[in-house]
Amino acid sequence: QVQLVESGGGLVQTGGSLRLSCAASGRTLRNYAVGWFRQATGKEREFVAAISWTYGGTYFADSVKGRFTISRDNAKNTVYLQMNSLRPEDTAVYYCATLTNLNSRRGDYWGQGTQVTVSS
After folding, report:
1. How far is CA 42 from CA 29, 55, 71, in A?
2. Which tens digits make up the pLDDT trace of 62-114?
3. In the prediction, which pLDDT does 31 show?
4. Alpha carbon distance 13, 30 (integer Å)
5. CA–CA separation, 43 vs 113, rounded Å?
6. Backbone angles phi, psi at 9, to 5 degrees
7. Residue 8 pLDDT exceeds 90
8. What pLDDT score does 49 carry?
9. Do 87 and 78 form a contact (C-beta atoms < 8 A)?
10. Predicted local distance difference test score (pLDDT) of residue 42
11. For the segment 27-57, what is each residue's pLDDT rounded down to a tens digit?
């Protein structure tokens, strides 16, 4: 079992930045990739970014490329999502999830989510 806890969400103005954290416990993330997903009100959940825990490879949705970065801290068993140049359309609940590999979009373990609101 892996427990994931997201934090770092909040209210920010257009063009601002936030850094989300996804802290894992119960098992090392060494055997997983970790992805960030988001779900806006009335919309389906969508993939945002992922990172391979072992090799550090990353993948981003086109909508966030060049604005978001993803990183990991092995010692803290934590994944970060740095979000810059935020737009109102980035408003959503953001979730992290473990993935079988970098190409997977099916999460195995999920966090509870953290709200990000970008005001115009």
Report:
1. 31, 35, 29
2. 999 999 999 999 899 999 999 999 999 999 999 999 999 999 999 999 999 99
3. 82
4. 35
5. 15
6. -70, 170
7. yes
8. 98
9. no
10. 97
11. 888 888 999 999 999 999 999 999 998 888 9
Q: Which residue has the tokens 């970098």?
A: 102
Cβ–Cβ under 8 Å, residues 3 and 24: yes
Task: Take residue 27 and report the two structure tokens written for it.
Answer: 């098992």
Cα gap 16→74, rounded to integer Å: 27
Please provide the DSSP assignment of 33-93 as one string: EEEEEEE-TTS--EEEEEEETTT--EEE-TTTTTTEEEEEETTTTEEEEEE-S--GGG-EE
Contact yes or no for 47/70 (Cβ under 8 A): no
